[in-house]
Structure formats: structure tokens, C-alpha cells
Structure of LPS-assembly protein LptD:
Amino acid sequence: MTAVRRGPVSRLTRRIVMRANGCGWSIRRLVMAVAAVASLGALIDVAAVAPASAQYTYNPLPPRPKPAKAANDNQMLVQATEVDYDYNNSRVSAVGNVQLFYNGTSVEADRVIYDQKTKRLHAEGNIRMTDADGKITYAEIMDLSDDYRDGFVDSLRVDTADQTRMAASRADRSSGNYTVFENGVYTACAPCRDDPKKPPLWQVKGARIIHDQQEKMLYFETAQLEFFGVPLAYMPYFSTPDPTVKRKSGFLMPGYISGTTNTGYGVEVPYYWAIAPDMDATITPRFLSRQGVLLQGEFRQRLIDGAYQIRAYGIDQLDPGAFAGQPGDRQFRGAIDTKGQFALNDKWVWGWDGVLMSDYYFFSDYRLYQYRDPLGSFLLLPTEALSQLYLTGVGNRSFFDARTMYWLSYSGNQSQVPIVYPVIDYSNVLNYPVFGGEFSYKTNFVNLSRDQAVFDPITTIANTNSLCTTASADPLARTPSQCLLRGFPGTYTRLTAEAQWRKSFTDPLGQIWTPFASLRADAINSSVSNQPGVSNYLPVGDTQAFRLMPTVGLEYRYPFINIQPWGSTTVEPIAQIIIRPNETYAGKLPNEDAQSMVFDASNLFSVDKFSGYDRVEGGGRANVGVQSTTQFDKGGAVKVLFGQSYQLFGMNSFAVQDTINTGINSGLDKPRSDYVASASYSPNSTYTFSIRSRMDEQTWNVQRFEAEGRANFNRWSVSMLYGSYAAQPELGYLTRRQGILTSGSLKIANNWVVSGSARWDLEANKINQYVVGAGYVDDCFVLAANYVTSYSYSAGTTPPVLSHAFMFQIGLRTLANSSTTSSSSGLQ
């Protein structure tokens, strides 16, 4: 008679807590065996690959509750209707609603048996395992040796945390290394809610999927890709690294290159090389029909405190004559660029960017790096490549940045591009009050040089007759009436230090008084080369200057608050008085960093409205305005600002003509400035409207106007920006500029989206750029097509080219994304 010790059966589930020893060791082996089964499911955790220029992306997946973190205390909890110990046959059985919990992993089954003689684990009936990461494994029968080297699982199904799914009729494991999935199916699509048995949008089937654990590779045999259950692609054999491998050497998806008439058509075949855990490389030969093989390589390494990368390009051109008369007319062409950044601690980082090319047309001719056109209708490509070395530190209320910069001109005008060595910025706000107020200070140091002057035409005659070139002998050539001096030739060094203090008081009437004071000092040394025309703008030779600008002022605000049942309104008159001496050396020193000047409501109350340190605002000034803010109880707000600036005494810095006419035509170059206004209205989270304008102080003619509106609904969104800018002849803008930029998208069905955007030049009365697209998007599949027109800018002085491109995109989540572009270009 077989001796069996049977536990009592009752309406309550029996609960047993064990440690990993004795009988508990057997059950622990069971848990780890099922964990091994779960690892089969992990094979489908394939990383997604998304192109950098993807127009459409997958719908976001619904969030899954994150499982609570379990303590790894090696304690096991077993729940079952009964637990049997068969000493004669050396078997331990858990029967009826078996549940095991161990280190964050739970296992459920109808029956679990461990045979100590054969050292086999057997589980059957509705097996469900949930690991600590949220992956769920289902099976009907599982049988494994206790060392997990051999065994099988029937009716396997796995749901992963990233909502991918895999199933197989059977999985066999042998030699502790090989796992074979019979009749495997994989998909990243959710099952149909109405009919879960219905085939998903796409799935991959394989007669056999073999996992080599030692090589960490997956081998697929007789695989096919199905859409809605219909096979569309067949692959007799292919292999891929298993999901435990984050990086694996091998070929990546090839790409087609449309090329140009000078380079010919081509194809790229990238090869990825996983050198070590902390470094890798990508080698990408591009085979071109006319010029031969362009080799591209990228090396990357991540260190404990940062990372860096190096790209290199090179080609031995088969037909250099295709670039006759251009810098590319040479046999060998190449380039190298690199960048890196490293942390010194939690507050300091240093890094670099570097670019070196055989000729400045190389990136443009072969559409490399910055000249790879992303999917977008309004493309702005850089005109220079930046090389720099920098050190940056950020504190609680302080900032430091030091860098040296070298620009490599894509136009070939290298002598007109400055070299900065270095520029240093430091600012700090003290954490404690000084005289009861806030005290801050900042410094800036710059040293730069340029070999050749840069002139820009501002009249039609100067443009047509080339009066701003160094070769022109016309008496009007390179004069302030015809040209701007954008960049001076020579060397320029400036050290600036500024201290600021301010304190706010609120009197019993609710009026807010804010006195402020600042002291700024500039030490300047410039050496201007006496090149043709430069003396018309700046004193040539060596100039040393010391510029001191003390400033005191008072800002006054008196907010009036009106509370109504529907909300509240705050009306706040604002007045600001600034007292300071005239700007010294105004217009007589180089101006490199304060060339931009836009006067609007955003800088109405700025003490110094210049954008950089090379100019400093002087003279007495008053800024006045009124601001109103309305808040609605049911949501929404309206904010309005209107004001004007007055030159009280002294010289108006914005009326002084410098090398680039910085303040001329800005609206500030007169005793009473233009009126500036802004208004924004957000009734709810759906709509947003805003306007910004500047009106002439005498005629009220609009000098600058921008209006923007946005609406974002559940199924559609639209935005529109209108801009109108008056002529600024002193800056080279001879006619008014007007345009509309609009974009929108519409979800016409659950998963279908159409979108488009356009730019309309109202002065020329033509739509010069637009993009139209449509696509199908869900949680696992993307299919999209776009028609794009955009201006592409090449290196040198070549005018922009209007290109037309048709772009097609298809994506299978976790498997692959690909896009194809067919384009043509022509001058318009």
C-alpha cells in the first residue's frame, strides 16, 4: 500500500509559507522553472526602430498598472486546495487553484507536481505566470527537468509589458541551450475587442523559431508576414539577435539615395559593429552610380561621466569633372566631425563640437549630416558648421559658461566668419538681501577676430551693381547709404561687468514701488583693419575705450482688482522712469552681438532694450503702459498690454546710426516711440488667440503686426499665424512683408488622419510652400503618404531650389519602420 500524507481539505484555501530549503526547495524549483518558461516570452521583446524624420507615430498604448515592488527575501507563499506528500514515490503535489508567490513572481495552475526521483517538474491546467516586470505567460502543460536543461511547454502564450504577444503550439528545450518554438506567432497588435479570435492587423508566423541561448540568436524558418490573416510576404529563413541583446553586430536596413546629376543614384548598406559594452560603430558604404563608393563611419563610446562620438566620411571620386568649376572638382573628398560632453559633477559639464572638411561644398553635394533633409515643409539649413570647446556650470541662482568657437563657412567665405576665443559669461543672484533688496551681478568677456569685412546691400542699386563687394570701384561702394557693415575686419576684445539691485515696496494703498539701480562698466580694445570702405563706418587702427553706465530708476504699479460673480479683473497701470548718462562711443565701436532689435510689448519695460553687450542704452527714458488681466471662474483668461516709451533727455541710443543701423526703424528711434500692444485670449484648453502689434506714434499706421490662433479638438486641430511687417529701408527691407502660415489635421475616422500646412506670401499672392499628407495610425501599425514642397538651400551662393517630394512611410511596431522619398527639384 502506498503511503500518502494528505492535507485536510476545507472551504478555506490552505496557505503555506516556506523558505528555500527542504520541501520548499522543490517548490522553488517549480517557480524558477516557470520563470524559465517566461523567458521564452521575453524573446519577443524586440526594440522598436523609428526614423528620425517620422511624420506619423503610433497611438500611445494605454498605461498598465505598475506591479508593486516585492522584497527579494527568498520567502515563498503557496496557496492550494491541497498539498500532497507521496514519500514512497518521492513526489510533492499541489492540487486545486494552485498559487505560488516568490520574489515578485506569481504562478497559477490547476496542478503542480515535482518528482524527486526523475527530477522533473510538471504543471498542467490553466498555467498563468506573472513576473515582476508585468509579463504574463500562459500554458496548458509544462514539463521541465529541475536544472531546466530539457523539457517542453504546450500551448504557450505570452503577453509582455509593452503589449506585444507571442504564441506557439509547443516549445521544446534541449541541452540547456536550444529552445524550439513550433508554429510560432508574433504580433504587437491588440486583439479585437469584439472577436479576440479574429486575426490581428498584422502578425508574423514561423513554422519553427529556434533560440540559441549561448549565441543569443533567434533563427526563423518558413516565416511569413500576414495582414488580417492574409499572407503578404514570405521568408524561408532569417535570423536576429534575441531581445536580451541590446546591441548586436550585423547589417541594418539598407536605404535608397535619390542623389543628384553630379553624384548619381545610390544605395546605402549600413553595418553595425558592437565593439564592447561601452562602445560601438556604424559603417555605412554608399554606392553611387557616378562617383563610386562613399565610405561613412561613426564611432560612439559612453563613459561613466559622459559620452562622445566621431563621424568620418571619404570618397575617391570616379568623375571629379562632374563638379567642374566648383570646390568639389578634386579626386578625394572627405570630412570628419565629432562631439562629446562629460560631467565633472552634478553642476559642471564640459564638451566639444568639431567639424573639418576637405571643401565646404562636401556636405551639401552629398547631402550628409546637417544637409539630410528631414520631413518638414519649412526647412532652414545651417550656413556654417560650428566647432567649439565649452565649460558650463549651473548653480541654484548662478550660471557660468565659457567657450571658444570656430565657424566653418558652407558658402566658402571663410575669411568673413569670425573666430571667438573665448566668450565667457557669469551671472549670480545673491541668496541674501542687500539693503533689503535683491542684488545680482553678471560679467561677459569676449575676444574675436575676422579677416575680411562683411557688407550687406540695403538698396536696389547696391544689390544690382554689386556696390557692397570689395572689388567695386564705384564712389558709392561700401558707404552707409548703400551698405551695412555686418562684420568688421580685425580683432575685438571686450570685458563687461554689471551689478544690479532692486527692491519692491507696497504702501497702504496697494501701490507697488520698485526702486532699482545698476552700474555697468565696459573695457574695450579693438583693432580695425583698414580695408576698402571700412573707414566709412568705424575708425580704423587701434582703439581703446572704457564705457561706464550708471543707472537709477523707479518702477510704479498700482493694481486695481474688480471681483464679479463670473470672475475677476486686474487693471494695472505701470510707469518706469530711468535716469542715466548718454551712451559713450555710440556707433563708433564694433557691434557683433547686439545686431537684432525688435521693439514690442515683451521688452517695453526692459531697462536696456539692446539684445547684446556691444551696445548699451543711454539717456533718460520713461516707459509707461497699462496691463489688464481677466480670469473667468469657469476657466479662461484675457491679458492685454498697451504702452509707449519716451526719451526724456540726452542722446537717444536707438537713433544713432552704427555699422548695421541697429535701432533705426525700430520704433524707438524718436522722442516718443511707436505704440506697442499685445493681447491674448484663452477661453479654455481648446482655443488660444494672441495678437502683437506696433503702431506709428503719429499716424497709427501698423508697423508690425502678428496674429495667431490655435484650436485643438479631439478629432481635429488647426493653427494660423498672420504676419505683416512694414518696410525698413535702413535695414534693407524695401517693401512690406506679409504672409500667412497655417497648419491643420483632421481625424476622419478612428485611425485615419489627414494633415497639411502651407505658407502664403500675400505680397506675391502665391502659396510658395506646402505639405499635404494622409495616414493610417493605430497602436501597432503606421501607413502614411506625404507630398512636400520646400526650398532647399545648398552651399555657396546658389539660390534656393524649390523641391517637390513624395514620401511614403510604413511601420510595424517593434519590428521595423521604413520610409521612401521620391523627389524632383527645379528653380522657380
